[in-house]
Amino acid sequence: MTTRVAIISIAVEKSGDVDKLNRILHEYSGYIIGRMGIPYAKREISLISVAIDAPADTISAMTGKIGMLEGITSKALYAKLKEVCNA
Asked: Which distant-in-sequence residues (6+ apart) come within 8 Å of 18 by Cβ?
């Protein structure tokens, strides 16, 4: 299986769908390298960075599901590394 390394940036502007977000992250936990969350109380927002090593279509599916949540946006940034086949 060919995988890519990416950082997924997530901005949580409304906390209504945070439980759904955590379920999605758990669903893809086997691909997640690490995760960092930063609450920014002054602006009432939370920022989350997720490092992932997964097939490109898996990363797209994950960010798509996250992007459909109300008050939550996400974007993936892919590393300029060669794709690697993990057997």
From this structure: 12, 72
